Backbone:
């Protein structure tokens, strides 16, 4: 990373957390200051801030241990891998019911990041490999997650009335049109992409929620446009059911 954008205070905080993790309830402020070469006044400010954020806890004997916020963040980190594992198990069944590929993704600002997919053999391979990103407004997956983004955050993500990029002649090009579609998504619980991301393909997606109801990911099924009318209802029902099963798993883990 270019050091031009480096934040020294974050680097120091990282060193403090590492030291505490290696010796929980064993180091006081003065010990951390000497070990890391950080003067006492700076160390006091770092520890006070991290304590207020629940990153660390100051014990009765003035030593420090890791705080509950780090446990929450760590649990969320590992849950995303648990979700992928559960997705593979559950979607491997659904894909055979639909005879179509099933995809899992999460929202990163105004883009969809593909995490995993269960693929059916096909002469045409979908470009949605894990790690690939697509503009959220052009995908059913993106709409299934954008529908529950808070209004201020949504306004930041889409500050202009014009939506870019335009991937096909069917891609939404106005924020106002996107907002209307997201209202339908919230009402119905699922989203469509009708040749908006890739010509010749249609898609249905549904959100996956965590235990507190927050949308953490979405799943979708894509198929050729000429198969869409015959399989749309089945795909919608199966994807919604799969999303519900994955959400229940998130609640119990």
Residues:
């Amino acid at each position: 990373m270019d050091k031009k954008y480096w934040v020294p205070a974050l680097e120091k905080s990282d060193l403090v957390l590492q030291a505490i993790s290696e010796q929980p309830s064993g180091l006081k402020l003065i010990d951390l200051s000497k070990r890391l070469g950080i003067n006492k006044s700076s160390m006091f400010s770092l520890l006070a801030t991290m304590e207020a954020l629940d990153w660390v806890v100051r014990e009765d004997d003035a030593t420090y241990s890791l705080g509950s916020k780090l446990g929450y963040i760590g649990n969320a980190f590992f849950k995303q891998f648990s979700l992928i594992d559960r997705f593979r198990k559950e979607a491997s069944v659904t894909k055979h019911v639909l005879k179509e590929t099933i995809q899992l993704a999460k929202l990163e600002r105004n883009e969809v990041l593909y995490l995993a997919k269960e693929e059916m053999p096909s002469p045409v391979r979908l470009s949605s490999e894990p790690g690939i990103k697509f503009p959220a407004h052009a995908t059913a997956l993106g709409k299934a997650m954008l529908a529950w983004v808070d209004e201020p955050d949504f306004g930041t993500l889409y500050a202009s009335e014009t939506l870019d990029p335009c991937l096909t002649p069917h891609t939404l090009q106005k924020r106002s049109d996107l907002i209307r579609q997201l209202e339908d998504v919230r009402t119905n619980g699922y989203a469509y992409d009708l040749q908006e991301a890739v010509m010749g393909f249609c898609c249905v997606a549904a959100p996956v929620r965590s235990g507190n109801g927050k949308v953490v990911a979405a799943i979708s099924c894509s198929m050729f446009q000429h198969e869409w009318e015959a399989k749309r209802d089945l795909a919608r029902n199966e994807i919604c059911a799969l999303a519900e099963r994955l959400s229940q798993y998130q609640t119990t883990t």
About this structure: The mean pLDDT is 91.
